[in-house]
Amino acid sequence: MSERRVWTVEIAFTEDENRTRADAVLSTGARQVSGWGRARRSPDDPDIPAIGEELAAARALSELAHHLVHEAATAIEDFEGHPVLLSV
Fold it and tell me: Is residue 3 part of a domain?
């Protein structure tokens, strides 16, 4: 059986007025990859912080995912010696 590896993601939120920012940091043990996202509440919307946190977190995780795909593509290009196109 192969060795089990665990990656962890920590998401920290900061809020001011009608904006929520999420910073996501993936720790692999050997390195860290990060992404961030923002959500803005319209003045007409109800004040429900969890909604802004969910949206900001989703955007931060999406950016983090794109960073991982880019790193994987770069590693494959270095090995193969030609450009590759990967998508999420």
Answer: no
